[in-house]
Design brief:
The protein is built from four helices and eight strands; from the N terminus they run βαβαββαβββαβ. By secondary structure, it is an alpha/beta fold. The protein has a single domain, classed as 3-Layer(aba) Sandwich (Rossmann fold). The relative contact order is 0.27.
């Protein structure tokens, strides 16, 4: 399943994340791809809100590598930022491997990870690119998510979808 569309503001980027967060079960690996300043952390704030968390708790873990956030009702989100690992070869991360299937893991700058992570069954890939100076193009790919359900949720929030 591939869903793509536009975000016209920071608030809409959060709405994209919130819609996805409402579809997750809490043990997936969400890989966020995109350049500097495209809105990856804003997307994660929305994702956390979609899981009934407080989006203001989410800050980029650029200098700590990982932040852990508890989810209401149990569970946790492990939020990684691999920006500082840009010079590292595309390798596997034992921190991620140890938690696969145990917690929701969200990885910003996932392009610095071994590409095999994209092929894991519980992986959701999100790509955010500049469409122009204000808009962002967002693409969500997954083999397990309810694509029609996510599309309905996004449309109900006023999100503009485009053909995949």
């Amino acid at each position: 399943m591939t869903i793509q569309g536009l975000s016209r503001s920071t608030a809409e980027t959060r709405l994209w994340g919130s819609a996805l967060g409402g579809m997750l079960k809490g043990h997936e690996l969400v890989l966020l791809h995109g350049g500097l300043g495209v809105g990856k952390t804003r997307f994660v704030q929305g994702l956390f809100a979609g899981m009934n968390g407080d989006p203001d708790e989410i800050v980029s873990p650029t200098f700590t590598l990982m932040n852990v956030h508890g989810l209401p009702g149990g569970g946790r989100i492990l939020h990684y930022d691999l920006y500082r690992l840009e010079s590292m070869s595309r390798g596997r991360m034992p921190e991620i491997d140890d938690e696969l299937g145990e917690a929701l893991q969200v990885v910003e700058w996932a392009q610095y990870l071994d590409p095999r992570y994209r092929e894991l069954p519980e992986t959701v890939s999100v790509t955010i690119d500049f469409a122009d100076s204000d808009d962002r193009a967002i693409r969500i790919q997954s083999t397990r998510l309810d694509g029609p359900g996510l599309e309905r949720e996004l449309r109900s929030r006023g999100i503009i979808l485009t053909e995949a």
